[in-house]
Amino acid sequence: MKSALSAKHFHNEEAAYQFVEARLWPNGPICPHCGGVDRISKMGGKSTRIGVYKCYQCRKPFTVKVGTVFEASHVPMRHWLQAIFLLSSSKKGISSNQLHRTLGCTLKTAWFISHRIREAMRVTGSTPMGGEGEIIEADETFIGRIEGQPKRRAGWGHKNVVLTLVMRGGEARSFHVDSTTIADIVPILRANIKAQSGINTDEANQYKNLSKHFPLHDSVNHKAEEYVRYEYPITGEPEKIITTNSVEGYFSVFKKGMKGVYQHCKEKHLHRYLSEFDFRYSNRIALGVNDVARAERALKGAVGKRLTYRTTGN
Fold it and tell me: Which of 54, 138, 185, 222 lies at a C-alpha separation of 20 to 30 Å from 195?
């Protein structure tokens, strides 16, 4: 059996650039400065860096890194690809300390690489989830501590609130929200779920009047230890399964990763960790996406996203 990490692009810098170019420029190089595709040549001088092209329309040099999360990075491309694969294939994530030891870079560099990859995993321009015949499960969980709040306090008022929507048998979307009130929760549901979708929640107050927006809303009563309910609306029709077990399963992996692997996350970075866990869940084996394909999807998400160390750290 051959290791996935034995591929040439993980060990050879020129092969790494060719691998990235083939996926980000499937129809040939594109100048990131002027958008031109004609009159572009690869530079081949002895002192020229690997992967440098020159556009003879705007007369500017460039590499495939320009306009991506790799831009202005001095980390070798093969190490970027190793990091993307490791972060994409580790179900509960991989810590910056582990990346630092594996890649042989500084801890600061490993931390920054991780955040850039999470930015590449972030989905943009999403349309509402679900549709006729689809079921969306919605629930909240609490993680970490809001900055400025005391370390020991009863209840969850001092914790960050995460709202997650899971399409049963499909994708996940998570949001860092201010509270569990109707004012914070319902607008997100309306913006991200098609009205004709079925929606399953628990018995929380913020969901009690949700049927005004989603006629096919059903709930389970966790306080009464009801976790799954089966209904048969019409004789001969498939049974109706009402549960939030899918989103609870998402939270199980998320919390094991955040507590067991990452251990600590500042409130300002939480949205990027949510993007990471959403990405792996939405591109999982059950949906026909293996580790190699998942890493390639993360790589393609690097385009058009720029994250500097200053904006990440502040």
Answer: 222
Contact 39, 60 (CB under 8 A): no
Q: What is the pLDDT of residue 221?
A: 95
Is residue 139 within a helix (H) or strand (E), and if so which, with residue range?
strand 135-143
Is the pLDDT confidence value at 86 over 70? yes
* CATH class given for the domain over 135-276: alpha beta
Written as one letter, the residue type at 293 is A
Q: What is the DSSP letter of 129?
A: B
User: Rounded CA gap, 150 and 152, in Å?
Assistant: 6
Per-residue model confidence as pLDDT tens digits over 227-277: 999 987 666 666 889 999 999 999 999 999 999 999 989 999 999 999 999
Residue 87 buriedness (CB in 10 A; 0-12 / 13-18 / 19+):
buried
Please check whether residue 109 is in contact with residue 98, taking contact to mean a CB–CB distance below 8 angstroms.
Answer: no
DSSP string, 236-259: TSPPEEEE-HHHHHHHHHHHHHII
pTM as predicted:
0.92
Domain residue ranges of the chain, discontinuous segments joined by + = 1-68, 135-276
Query: If you search the block for the tokens 């002895």, which residue do you land on?
Result: 46
Q: How far apart are alpha carbons 289 and 297 in whole angstroms?
A: 10
